[in-house]
Amino acid sequence: MILTPGATIGILGAGQLGRMLAMAAARLGLRSHIFAPETEAPAFDVASARTIGAYEDEAALTAFAEAVDVVTYEFENVPTSCVDFLSALRPVRPGARALSLTQDRLVEKSFLSDLGLRTAPFMAVEDAGALVRAVAALGRPSILKTRRFGYDGKGQALIREGSNLSALYRGLGGEPTILEGFVNFEREVSVIAARGLDGAFAAFDICENEHEKHILARTRVPAAIAPATAAAAVALARQIIEALDYVGVLAVEMFVTREADGLEGLVVNELAPRVHNSGHWTIDGAQTSQFEQHVRAIAGWPLGATTRRGRIEMHNLIGEEAAGWREILAEPGLCLHLYGKMEVRSGRKMGHVTRILPEGAK
Ligand code: AMP
Predict the structure, then answer these.
(1) Going residue by residue through the chain (362 aa), what tens digit of pLDDT does each one get?
(2) Mutate-to-test residue for ligand 1 from 105, 143, 208, highest number of ligand atoms within 8 A of CB
(3) Ligand 1 center to residue 13 CA distance, Å?
(4) Is 216 part of a structural domain of the chain?
């Protein structure tokens, strides 16, 4: 099903990603209808309709589906039952498979390694005894992560020499976990890729990401990696997006390692079946933004050009940092984005700033 201008996209989730998707949709003459349980959230300000309801509320979901032409989601923790239910009523892009796969780190890593891609070595850990065996196999340091519902470093514990394994396991709430061997990486990069309904593929230039306290702090584009590594990263993202028969924007987070032969290697860390924070620079810094790209893809429209407008630095405004909005506005060359969040909390993403520098500038 291909949309025409005036059609309505339904978005599950009402955070800043939904907000920026709705803004991109509006520019293309499409309406957005947001479905989320919260009563106040960033996406509501910019959408033409909202449904406040639980993701399990089938009556609310039915009414929502009847009011929209296509459904997408802006975060991956929407219950799969919700997407399965909606799929019977309207096209859901990307579909239920990408969602269920990325909700569980073990399933995701198994999918990647079945594709022949390199990931951190991993083992499922179902209890404290299994953790002892997994640490013996994968060594220290290693990272214990909950299989589900982890984000921004939540649900993770670093295992070092001397760490008390059973205490660490209990600290993650006794949920199913996965142990990952520690990857000694040089840098972290991401590929923001897209696939159209017709199978067309496009990717933005590779983003280099710096985290602080597990939260993305800065993205620089292009990443300081060899051209062959950048090409390999895009090829890898393409392999993943095609294996999933995916429609929309997909983010692939990777580690860049330095191999024994002196060359760079790529280890896939995580997939996000949605637009991604490391792609926010594309609003100001690329011919088509990742949000417009996603809207084009799910509408069944041609993908846009991903041409970059210069060298880019994107900085997240976390918590109190957003209080500097006046100084940011006063500085020519900075593009300010605020997400309309009323309550400042430490660690909360309040907005971001993009700086575009001439290519070759320091
Ligand atoms: P994740 O939630 O899996 O994206 O992990 C959050 C951050 O923890 C990553 O961006 C890395 O900086 C770090 N990290 C995660 N897994 C590993 C690993 N296996 N080896 C080294 N660092 C990791």
Answers:
(1) 999 999 999 999 999 999 999 999 999 999 999 999 999 999 999 999 999 999 999 999 999 999 999 999 999 989 999 999 999 999 999 999 999 999 999 999 999 999 999 999 999 999 999 999 999 999 999 999 999 987 777 889 999 999 999 999 999 998 899 999 999 999 999 999 999 999 999 999 999 999 999 999 999 999 999 999 999 999 999 999 999 999 999 999 999 999 999 999 999 999 999 999 999 999 999 999 999 999 999 999 999 999 999 999 999 999 999 999 999 999 999 999 999 999 999 999 999 999 999 987 66
(2) 143
(3) 25
(4) yes
Identify the residue whose C-alpha is closest to ligand 1 atom 13: 214
114 exposure class (CB count in 10 Å sphere: 0-12, 13-18, 19+): exposed
In a domain, 362, yes or no: no
* 129 and 172, same domain (yes or no): yes
Distances in whole angstroms, Cα of residue 36 to Cα of each of 43, 51, 77, 97, 204 = 10, 7, 12, 21, 29
Q: Count up the domains in the chain and report the number.
A: 3
Any ligand 1 atom below 6 A from CB of 182: yes
Residues 216 and 177 in one domain: no
**Domain limit, last residue, from 181, 209, 230:** 181
Closest CA to 10 of 79, 77, 81, 60: 60
Residue located nearest, by CA, to atom 5 of ligand 1: 153
On whether both 219 and 330 belong to a single domain, the answer is yes
Ligand 1 contact via 75 beta carbon (within 6 Å): no
Distance CA 124, CA 146 (A): 10
CA of 6 to the centre of ligand 1 (A): 42
**321 with 204, same domain?**
yes
Domain membership flag for residue 56:
yes
d(CA 159, CA 181): 10
Domain that holds residue 267: 187-357
321 CB less than 6 Å from ligand 1?
no
Ligand 1 atom with the smallest distance to the CA of 183 is 20
Q: Which residues pair with 316 in a beta bridge?
A: 352
Report the distance separating Cα 19 and Cα 350, nearest Å.
13
Q: Are residues 199 and 125 in the same domain?
A: no
143 lines ligand 1 (CB under 6 A): yes
